[in-house]
Amino acid sequence: MNWPCFPGWPVFPGLEPFAGPGNIPLVMFKSLGAKTLIYPAPVLVVGTYDKAGKPNVMTAAWGGICCSQPPCVAVSLRKVTHSHANILARRAFTISIPSEQYVKEADYFGLVSGRNTEKFKAAKLTPVKSKLVDAPYVEEFPLVLECKLVHVAELGLHTQFIGEVIDAKADESIIGDGGAIDVKKLKPLVFAPDTQEYYGVGKYVGKVFSAGKGI
Q1: Contact 100, 200 (CB under 8 A)
Q2: Closest to 189 in 3D by CA, of 59, 47, 36
Q3: In this structure, are residues 145 and 165 in contact, taking their beta carbons and an 8 Å threshold?
Q4: Which of 115-119, 142-146, 165-169 shows the lowest mean pLDDT across its residues?
Q5: Is residue 6 one of the residues assigned to a domain?
Q6: Residue at 28 is within a domain
Q7: Which residues contact 159 (CB under 8 A, 6 or more apart)?
Q8: Other Cβ atoms within 10 Å of 209 Cβ, number
Q9: CATH number of 183's domain
């Protein structure tokens, strides 16, 4: 492709100018290769029971909403994880959403394996047995999704587990005036996949299906 640019401007492979109105170079794109750079990635704490009935949690970022009706979420885990085998055996999992104050605990859940560590005990958090699915969730985390396993997809390094949401539970402290989750009260963690850093949620910038009407 021939990229429009000013006469005499060098064009380097992998660093081409994006042309805006009037062929004015606006952005210089640099090729980063094939990477999973979706910003931001969520911080999801996956709850499961192992074959002995021990509650386990692990932190995952490769996941999110995948269907509206029926309501479904997906999370992708490596086969070597303890949670991978737990989900296949129990056909269920939960997703607990940690708030900013639990960044240490959320990170810890991704550092050690549940095969030889009682993560709830070490982190001083409380496992709650779901009444709807065969999995535990974190009592202290303000938002929980209880899921039954409905699909499994082998992708490569990761297996994607799709769970139908049987119920979503929210602490009353994070519910806004209209009955929806108030993200400013939830204060969820988000993850930068390439720099391996956690962040909080930024400022409000616009309303969905409204902000674009001014164009």
Answers
A1: yes
A2: 59
A3: yes
A4: 115-119
A5: no
A6: no
A7: 76, 77, 78, 79, 84, 152, 153
A8: 6
A9: 2.30.110.10
How far does CA 149 lie from the centroid of its chain?
17
Boundaries of domain holding 146: 41-199
120 SS3 class: helix
What percent of the chain clears pLDDT 90, i.e. is strictly above it?
84
Q: Tell whether 9 is covered by a domain.
A: no
E strand spans, the chain: 15-19, 25-30, 41-42, 44-49, 55-60, 63-67, 72-78, 92-97, 127-129, 136-138, 143-154, 158-170, 190-192, 197-199
pLDDT in tens, 159-187: 999 999 999 999 999 999 999 999 999 99
DSSP alpha helix (H) spans, 67-205:
82-90, 103-108, 119-123, 183-186
Residue 11 has pLDDT above 60, yes or no: no
Per the domain annotation, does 129 fall within a domain?
Answer: yes
Q: What is the pTM of this model?
A: 0.86
